[in-house]
Amino acid sequence: IAVVDAALMIESGGYKRFDQLIVVWCEPDLQLERLMSRDGLSKADAGKRIGSQMSQDEKKAFADHLIDTSQTFEGTRRRTTEIFDRLIASKKR
């Protein structure tokens, strides 16, 4: 199992090199808030950056697995562990 963090994995077509794709996403308002906080952007600039990318809904359509990070860290960890365990089990067959 290889985990590759690549923001433009789908847009670049890089996802085709992998057997399965996990899309990590959050609610749009939280995505905007996190981007503003992380990069020190204004709401307008953060909105422009998000608007220039493929939408989360479009990305989710490519996914074999989804991780919603909108809730608690523990919820995210639990979902990540579930997916990891499922991937490990599928490779043992």
Structural write-up:
- The protein is mainly alpha-helical and 93 residues long.
- The protein folds into 2 domains: 28-62, no CATH class; 63-93.
- Helices cover 54% and strands 9% of the residues.
- The chain is built from 5 helices and 2 strands; from the N terminus they run H-E-H-H-H-E-H.
- The protein has a two-stranded parallel sheet.
- The mean pLDDT is 95.
Descriptors:
93 residues; 54% helix; globular
Number of domains: 2
Radius of gyration over alpha carbons? 15 Å
**Helicity level:** 40-55%
Strand content: 5-15%
Per-chain topology:
Elements: H1 9-12, E1 22-25, H2 28-39, H3 43-51, H4 56-60, E2 65-68, H5 73-92
Parallel strand pairs: 1-2
Helix pairs in contact: 2-3
Quick take:
This protein is mostly helical and 93 residues long.
